[in-house]
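Subject: Interface between my chains keeps coming out wrong

I've been trying for a while to get a sensible model of this assembly. When I model each chain on its own everything looks fine, but I need the whole thing in one frame so I can look at the contacts. Pasting all components below, labels as-is. Any help appreciated, I'm running out of ideas.
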Amino acid sequence: MQVEELQIIERIRNGEVNAFSHLVNKYQDVVYSIALKVLKNREDAEEMAQETFIKAYRSLSSFQGKAKFSTWLFSIAYNTCITSVRKKKFQTTSIDQVQLDDPDEEWDSFGLSSEERSRMLETALKQLPEDDYLLVVLFYYEEQSIEEICRITGLSESNAKVKLFRARKKLYTIMNDLMKKEIYSEP
Amino acid sequence: MKSEENDIRLKQLMKEIRLESPGPEFASKVMGAILAEPEKKPAFVTEPFLGKKFWILLSSFVLPLILLLVFSTPETGPGVFQQFFSKVPTPDWGPVRELFSTALGQQGSLAWTVMLILLGGSGLILADKLFEKRKTLSLS
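Reply #2:
Try treating it as a single job with all components included. I did that and got this:
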């Protein structure tokens, strides 16, 4: 996968600009969903995602291939988000807004169909604060390592681990709440 | 252990979900913006083929060699170089030469060994650069 991306980058560097669309298609959802989570507005999020890809293209010369392209791209997206938030003096959601009442770290999805599980997880992700959403998506969806997440966010390794642990716990808490609501709402 | 199991489980669950997508025209908008930038292809920094490291290493070999050739005597040149030095007329720089000869006499073959190591190091950097260049070319 990494080699394939390096080949695409090399093609772009050799003037085949259209090859960049492969990278856009591959990562647009992750970049856009992070932007949407932070900006909470589809138009702004799309604009920011677009800006991220254009910035990435312009600074492709500084990409040395030492890190994964996705790690490098997400760090651009993250910094663009931060800049955008600072410019708009955006009110970020407090990390501790979701109460961690349930000490259980498990999520019992027993009895749920695959579609129901996905739907519930998607709903739970939407309810996560942006910091936690970013960590969960990067680690569990994009399978970035802790080290790579540290590069993207600038967090220390221990901090990233703690935040990720708490984010996962919050996610399970939200999912368990959703499960309970679903059970009690059933006729 | 439990945490690792949870990680694996959540990663599997995450594969089943779909993230929010931008509009269907998103990719073409991005590409349009990129292509609309005339002559704004990414400015690739042309790195010199042989970097600073190579030249430092090489000069740390070449400079002492020049000094040795200028100031050494047949007595101070070790092994195979001794005969060569005996045929090459060396300038008589008096005290400088004497000082250098004394220093070399005390060092024995150490100076030559160090220089050979540095030369070897330079050679390795050069080989590394050549392989890297070949790899990049084969990728493109």
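Reply #3:
Confirming on my end. The mean pLDDT of chain B is 71.
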